[in-house]
Specification:
Blueprint lengths: L17 E5 L5 H16 L3 E3 L1 H4 L4 H4 L4 H14 L2 E5 L8 H12 L3 E5 L14 H4 L4 E3 L2 H11 L1
Parallel strand pairs: 1-2, 1-3, 3-4, 4-5
Amino acid sequence: MLYLVIPKVTYDMSRETKIYLAAPLFSQAERTFNASLHQLLDNRGFVVYLPQEDSEDNSSKRDDLDQQRLFENNRDAIDECDIIVAVLDGGSDVDSGTAWEIGYAYAKGKTLLTLKTDFRTLGSEGIVNLMIECSVNELETDVGSLLDSLEKYR
C-alpha cells in the first residue's frame, strides 16, 4: 500500500511578523480588494495593519480626525512593521500615497514586497516607475506569488 505524506505547514508564531498593507483605498473595488488581501495575510499568521481600517482613514472619519493625526498613525505603523506589502494597481502609475509609503519604508530599511496585478505597464521602461521597482525586494504580478514570496521574509 502506498501512502502519500503531506507535510503540515506550520508558522513560527513566537514572533509575529507585522505587515503594513499600503494600497489605494479610494474606490469600493480598491477597499474590497485590500480587505480580501488583508484576510489572506491574516490567515497566513501575519499581523496586518490596513490603513482603511486601522487608521480610520475613510471619508466618514476624516471629519472627526485631522489630517495630521491620520498621517502620524500611518507613519507610526510603518515604523512598527517588519514588512510593507504595497499594491501598485490603479493605472499606469503608482498611487501617490502608496508611493510615499514605499519611499518612507525604503528609507527606514524595511522589507518591501509589491503586487501589481494590473497588466498595463509603462512600456519598455518596466512594470512600474524605476524608482519604485529598484526600491523593492520583490515585485509580484499575482496574489499567489506574493504569498509565496512573503514566506522568505517571515
